[in-house]
């Protein structure tokens, strides 16, 4: 069985109708690949459409403010992708006059474009014979060929890229790359794939050796850090509140949030009052403190689980730099904070 021909035939019969598959515009391909990192197609598609409608060209994206880009990205997570996307657009627009590099090696020189995205652009747009390697490719090849390598290891990507290169179509590299990713997304799925309907059922190592559930092998994940964040929604006599921008390394860089107090465990009303009284967040007398969310909100990140509470703290007098509700809502926030804001704490 010719793996490449069989795979491409399956793809042409089963592929999803997606907007980035009807173009060879490197801007659209690049945008789609950045959005789809760590993101399912169903979630990423509306964002792709929003970005291409708001920023039709790389020049439009380059000329936007970072705040505009982060606001449009809001809810996708991994916000460093959006910042790198914006910076790369500025570089391509200004330094490269809007022209994307046309080779894999040159694409890698652009900030935010890694091996996977560079391979996708180079093969989809320019027909360069270079394999993409993502989670789907790891899974398909590990099962089909019986590769025991830990996909979390430093050498895994190089090994799987070499295997993919041996199997891929030399005449249709872009089609092969799209096919193997789609096959992993639709057919060779992580759990309980329908192997009885698989075009490779007669030649798949994992199926023949009952190792579908064991492959690909990945060592245990990094231990998740538990954090308790108590967000302080200050409200002065004019119903104005304060927000702040996160700067420096760490989660949610350059996004906005309410001031917060981090604790070692979940705290309740009296403990919160004691904490905020001791903090330097307040410059005005407290009138009233209440919990705006009856239950703590748990928000999972890749290596952190956040346990979040929102506290209303009404104060006497006027806050310096206070903003009204609509002005606050216009800023880019992490999605867990934006969902709280969208529910309008003034009505809680």
Outline of the structure:
With 348 residues, this protein is of the alpha+beta class. Helices cover 42% and strands 12% of the residues. It has helices at residues 3-14, 26-36, 41-54, 58-63, 66-73, 80-94, 104-107, 115-126, 135-145, 156-167, 173-186, 205-208, 269-278, 325-329, 335-342, and strands spanning 225-235, 244-245, 256-257, 260-263, 286-291, 297-300, 304-315.
Account of the protein in words:
The chain is of the alpha+beta class and 348 residues long. It contains 15 helices and seven strands. The strands form two sheets. Strands 1, 4, 5, 6 and 7 form a five-stranded mixed sheet that branches. Strands 2-3 form a two-stranded antiparallel sheet. Strand 6 and strand 7 form a beta hairpin. Helix 2 crosses helix 3. The radius of gyration is 24 Å and the shape is elongated. The model has no long low-confidence stretch (mean pLDDT 92).
Question: What is the approximate shape?
Answer: elongated
Number of strands: 7
Average pLDDT, rounded to a whole number, is: 92
The tally of helices reads 15
Largest beta-sheet details: 5 strands, mixed
Q: List the quaternary state of the chains.
A: single chain
**Beta-strand percent range:** 5-15%
Task: State the helicity in percent bands.
Answer: 40-55%
Unreliable stretches covering 5 or more consecutive residues: none
Q: Could you say which structural class the secondary elements and strand pairing correspond to?
A: alpha+beta
- Order of SSEs: HHHHHHHHHHHHEEEEHEEEHH
- Over all CA atoms, what is the radius of gyration? 24 Å
Q: What gap, in angstroms, lies between the N and C termini?
A: 63 Å
